[in-house]
TrEMBL record, chains A, B, C, D:
<feature type="transmembrane region" description="Helical">
    <location>
        <begin position="164"/>
        <end position="195"/>
    </location>
</feature>
<keyword id="KW-0407">Ion channel</keyword>
<keyword id="KW-0472">Membrane</keyword>
<keyword id="KW-0631">Potassium channel</keyword>
<dbReference type="InterPro" id="IPR010617">
    <property type="entry name" value="TMEM175-like"/>
</dbReference>
<dbReference type="Pfam" id="PF06736">
    <property type="entry name" value="TMEM175"/>
</dbReference>
<keyword id="KW-1133">Transmembrane helix</keyword>
<keyword id="KW-0813">Transport</keyword>
<feature type="transmembrane region" description="Helical">
    <location>
        <begin position="114"/>
        <end position="135"/>
    </location>
</feature>
<feature type="transmembrane region" description="Helical">
    <location>
        <begin position="35"/>
        <end position="62"/>
    </location>
</feature>
<protein>
    <submittedName>
        <fullName>TMEM175 family protein</fullName>
    </submittedName>
</protein>
<comment type="similarity">
    <text>Belongs to the TMEM175 family.</text>
</comment>
<keyword id="KW-0406">Ion transport</keyword>
<keyword id="KW-0633">Potassium transport</keyword>
<keyword id="KW-0812">Transmembrane</keyword>
<keyword id="KW-0630">Potassium</keyword>
Length: 209, 209, 209, 209
């Protein structure tokens, strides 16, 4: 199987998801002449949207760079990828839930919303773990320039992410804001892990050239 | 006609449909502090969504592998494909209907929702049947490595699917849960049929290489 | 400018539009146990959806075949194409309007909805007219195998379409059903015109080979 | 990194955004028999939609031509591009706000809506500024035919745009209609700047050939 159509399909899903997030913005009901106040009260939605956009964007960068090291794919990669994309498309819903709960400021509801977001993020990282593992066991799919050194650098990233989101779930029971910080930290961690992976991949390809 | 643009257009529709399914998740109205209870009551939506995602994903895998055996397409393939994609995009609506009916638990409404889903699934399988038939009669469009043996293996799949969904419609009148199991069975059958077709196709291509 | 990215962008818009039409299906409010009755009352939506899908699908087939005769595009083709796609994306709204008006059965509202649909269809055909004209005057963009004979066959199609929709507007004032038949006739005419253009194009390419 | 997947992903986002703008059209509540009056009262939505479509279309043309001068991209271009696309997807919301505020005709709300639109437009132009700057400092990414002359012509465009939108914000406090004209002027300026850039690029490529 050639990798082009696989990438185009995945890119399509990423592009659609990252764009339809904006559909969650709805004009709030407001007293005439008070649109400004109503919009300022929507800061949780903007925050949740900006973070989710950043998160999905980072996942796309990951997907883009990571799969560029493959020579070809097989059926199982296709199926694992569908599972990964399934977990990522789910993000649209907790984004709204977090925005909504931050608006009402109810403690129990904020806990619920953050934990749902954490669970989806944990699920996403778990699918990356399975993908890494599968491709590690099927070296024949990879570009030979990308060696075991590369895998050694990245293999614990999904485990780290899962741990951060697991901690975030526990932390949320203790304190909403600790939970929020851990969730944001998880997303920022992905971005840093992406930068490192990307550099490592450039090295691996460069040394082979 | 070249096959690239045909595949890209089809992939686009699959990618969009599979992503916008998530737009059916709406925050339920809930008493402050009871978001968790409200979310748990949404299990039918999650179930219906997960099954429909799995279904559309399987249909994409089918489409992806099946059309990879063509050398080129003609106008009729393009038109039949639009009909196939029409039937598939319809799935978004019965997905919501099933989720909604499972939430109210009204027997008559659940019957209606399942039967609408069955009818759309039956329609999808029927379009596959016509596509298989057309391509069987136009061997000049196919990669010569893919022989009559391959067709012999897959040709009854759409007939089997249509039968399962037909049975599901009848079964739903008798018992909702029998109907639900047959519907789920039909979707799982597609996945198994995909795995078999995919193996067969790899064999056919391999023996020609 | 290469034609690939132009086609991919256009295909993307067609694929998205044809898929999001389904988002206009909303679960009607219904008395528990009467979902079936409520769904059957949605026949105008299904009809309007099926026609609009068929219409957008036909426009895609046109776009697909017609632009396959170009060697390259220039900036003006890109801009005219954006205008054409603008007119086509508008279709989503009159589709809903027609469905809604057919549900209430109010004569004045049905007239309004049909005329809005006619106006959008007329606008679409007008953009095709300008595209045909522009490309006729810039033969250097075309595949040399596609000669003036081809243009002679197709050049009046947009004029014919504009006339049909103009007639449909006038007819709607006289009788709703006459207006509906003319509108449906216009859409079916596009499909027949597509079939003819497609055959003519195959001839032109064949005679050059 | 190859530029194809980068362009396809960006094109996907542009195509989706420009198409989903139409989802903001909703059937207004109207007294039976008065659909026409209700639709005519939606002129602000149509106007805001048409302008936003034209704006996003122009941004796509820019993106399309501008990045055609690159030989390859690096990670930072990918990240800057995600930021640029983030700013562009935001447009969907102020489009609705402007349409809504123009419908109620409340002065304060119209000011708010226009200023939100201006801020998003200013943000978009700022991301273009950073992209221009980054690529100016990384000539190794560019097609060598595109020289410093080209950059000299275009480098102040984002600064000009930012100034126009800054003026529009100030102007809106003074007079709604002045603000509206400046906003519309900014969007038209983009189109003219695009035409100039596109000609300049054709010259640069031509002189190298």
């Amino acid at each position: 199987m050639k990798i082009d159509r696989f990438q185009a399909f995945s890119d399509g899903i990423f592009a659609i998801l990252i764009t339809i997030l904006v559909l969650e913005f709805h004009i709030p009901t407001y007293r005439e002449g008070h649109l400004l106040t109503a919009l300022l009260a929507q800061w949780p939605l903007f925050l949740s949207y900006a973070f989710s956009y950043f998160y999905v964007g980072t996942l796309w960068l990951f997907h883009h760079d990571y799969f560029s090291m493959l020579k070809r794919i097989d059926r199982n990669v296709n199926i694992l990828n569908l599972l990964m994309l399934f977990s990522i498309t789910l993000l649209d819903y907790p984004m709204s839930l977090v925005a909504d709960a931050l608006t009402t400021r109810n403690r129990a509801d904020m806990q619920t919303a953050f934990i749902v977001y954490d669970l989806v993020a944990l699920f996403i990282s778990a699918t990356f773990y399975f993908m890494y593992l599968y491709l590690h066991r099927h070296q024949e799919l990879k570009n030979p320039a990308v060696t075991a050194d590369f895998y050694a650098v990245i293999k614990f990233d999904p485990v780290r992410s899962v741990s951060i989101y697991g901690l975030a779930i526990v932390g949320t029971f203790w304190s909403i804001w600790l939970g929020a910080i851990l969730l944001a930290g998880g997303i920022i961690f992905h971005f840093l892990a992406y930068l490192r992976m990307s550099k490592q991949l450039a090295l691996a390809k460069g040394s082979a050239a």
